[in-house]
Amino acid sequence: MSRPLAASRRGFLGLSAAGLAALATTAPARAQTIRSTARIVILGAGAGGTAFANRIARRLEGATITIVDGRKEHWYQPGFTLIAAGLKPASYSVSQTADWLPEGVNLIAEHAAAIDPVAKSVTTTGGTRLDYDYLIVATGLVLDWAAIEGFSTDLIGKEGISAHYHSPEAAAASFRALDAFTDKGGKALFGRPATEMKCAGAPLKITFLAEDMASRKGTRGKIDITYAAQNKTLFGVPIVSEKVRMLFGDRGIVPAYDHVLKAIDPGARLATYATPDGDTQLPYDFINIIPPQRAPQVVREAGLSWADKWTDQGWLEVDMKTLRHLRYPEIFAIGDVAGVPKGKTAASVKWHQPVVEDHLLAQIAGKEGTATFNGYTSCPLITRVGRAMLIEFDYNNNLVPSFPGIIPPLEELWISWLMKEVALKATYNAMLRGDA
Ligand SMILES: Cc1cc2nc3c(=O)[nH]c(=O)nc-3n(C[C@H](O)[C@H](O)[C@H](O)COP(=O)(O)OP(=O)(O)OC[C@H]3O[C@@H](n4cnc5c(N)ncnc54)[C@H](O)[C@@H]3O)c2cc1C
Questions:
Q1: Which of 69, 125, 143, 293 to mutate to test the pocket of ligand 1 (most atoms within 8 A of CB)?
Q2: pLDDT band for position 419 (50/70/90)?
Q3: In CATH terms, is domain 31-70+110-141+295-375 a member of 3.30.420.40?
């Protein structure tokens, strides 16, 4: 019998408000530990991998836990939106990967270069071979900048080009470009890629924040804003899409449906979009670029991806409820790399943790795990400085508010803004420590 873990109705953001102080300061009740000599390798020390290393280190005695990640900095990516809007400095999102990891977990500061799921081994970029009994793939995703012809990351912050998904520094450079644009005026283009993406609300947030910035400066009348949507909707959950459509109407933001960015000409300031009727060009003075997103090459080359779904993207072929690989039962996915229909948010990562922990520990103990992931995805959808909508939903597009009847999800509220601006980072940090 499966046991849905989100049954508590308290989502990631519910945790923020309800128990934030406690979470940040109090160690959780000690769960039972298991003795095992299992070799567990975790690929990626981002939101998912770091949190899992902390959780599992508490639950296992005698196991060898190795985490592999070549990036020394840990990035709190939900902060990138705030940086790109000039509300936080780049340093707001940066900490050191090693500082989050518990004693007893070995960090290999290299990337995984190859995974052999048959031999059960990983080879790092430095050539080290790591044999595993259990593998947790938490590599996140890659941003395919090369797919946007004419763009290169050294253009970020110049020529009216912003790309806050890239890094904390790029988010800060993107703010400088937006600040200059909203002083001067002209045509602004926003939008999202056609692939699955992390935080599908983030392209909308930056659009709303740009509009708000121009309104506050008194330059809104000099600015045209177009939002290029990859299909005929503005968000994957129909009721939210409709709400965004209405807000766009109120705020004078023009949607361009079925427009997928494929190229820019920075000199001529022209963007080319693929549409069902062929390519079309739009002029811009400012453009925010969010490229297609895919599983990292190492995952795609290991034969771990779905063969019949997302074939251009390569997400890991896992069971949508248990996050266990469908062909290699000793492999699990946590985070953005998981090939499931929803859930590429840090909030979802929080709910991946207990599910994978349950199934992994049960397997080690020779039992069957029972926990399930219901697709919980959350996005505090900022609509202006000081206002946001607390959007939380599941695999079935049901809205699953953490505070039903208290915080209505489709209303622009100050409290929902506080969730994003204040509470989210503390909750995220508690998750990293394995405490939430
Ligand atoms: C602009 C923006 C705004 C966002 N806003 C929100 C929000 O408001 N709320 C929310 O919940 N989520 C938000 N997110 C999404 C959230 O940040 C991600 O969903 C979350 O970080 C996913 O965690 P992860 O562990 O899967 O990946 P990550 O946190 O990206 O970590 C992946 C790690 O894997 C490492 N790695 C990559 N390749 C390899 C390899 N080959 N070998 C070893 N390691 C590797 C990387 O270096 C990285 O450290 C936002 C993201 C962005 C970009």
A1: 69
A2: confident
A3: no
| Three-state secondary-structure class, residue 70 | coil
**Measured in angstroms, how far is the CA atom of residue 192 from the centroid of ligand 1?**
17
Give distance in angstroms: CA of 2 to centre of ligand 1. 28
Average pLDDT of span 158-173: 98
Q: Where are the domains of the chain?
A: 31-70+110-141+295-375, 145-292+377-431
CATH of 145-292+377-431, one of 3.40.50.300, 3.50.50.100, 3.40.50.720, 2.60.120.580: 3.50.50.100
Average pLDDT over residues 342-368: 97
Strand ranges inside 141-277, DSSP E? 142-143, 161-162, 186-191, 223-228, 253-256, 260-265, 270-275
Give residue 77 CA to ligand 1 midpoint distance, Å: 7
Determine how β-strand 112-116 pairs with β-strand 278-283: unpaired
Residue pLDDT, tens place only, 152-161? 999 999 999 9
The angle at the Cα of 168, spanning 164 to 170, to the nearest 5 degrees, equals 50
For residue 33, the CA-to-ligand 1 centroid distance in Å is: 29
Each residue's pLDDT tens digit, 395-409: 999 999 988 888 899
How far is it, in rounded angstroms, from Cα 29 to Cα 23? 11
Query: Could you give the dihedral angle defined by the CA atoms of residues 333, 339, 342 and 348, in that order, rounded to the nearest 10 degrees?
Result: 10
Please indicate whether residue 14, judged by its CB atom, sits closer than 6 Å to ligand 1. no
Which residue's CA is the closest to the ligand 1 atom numbered 6?
78
Nearest CA to ligand 1 atom 53: 165
What is the percentage of the chain residues whose pLDDT exceeds 70?
93
User: Token pair for residue 209?
Assistant: 């924040």
Closest CA to ligand 1's atom 15? 345
The position carrying tokens 């330059």 is 219
Question: Could you tell me the distance, in angstroms and rounded to a whole number, from the CA of residue 70 to the centre of ligand 1?
Answer: 14
Q: Do domains 31-70+110-141+295-375 and 145-292+377-431 have the same CATH topology?
A: yes
Pairing of strands 60-61, 377-384: unpaired
| Residues 196-239 pLDDT 10s | 999 999 999 999 999 999 999 999 999 999 999 999 999 999 99
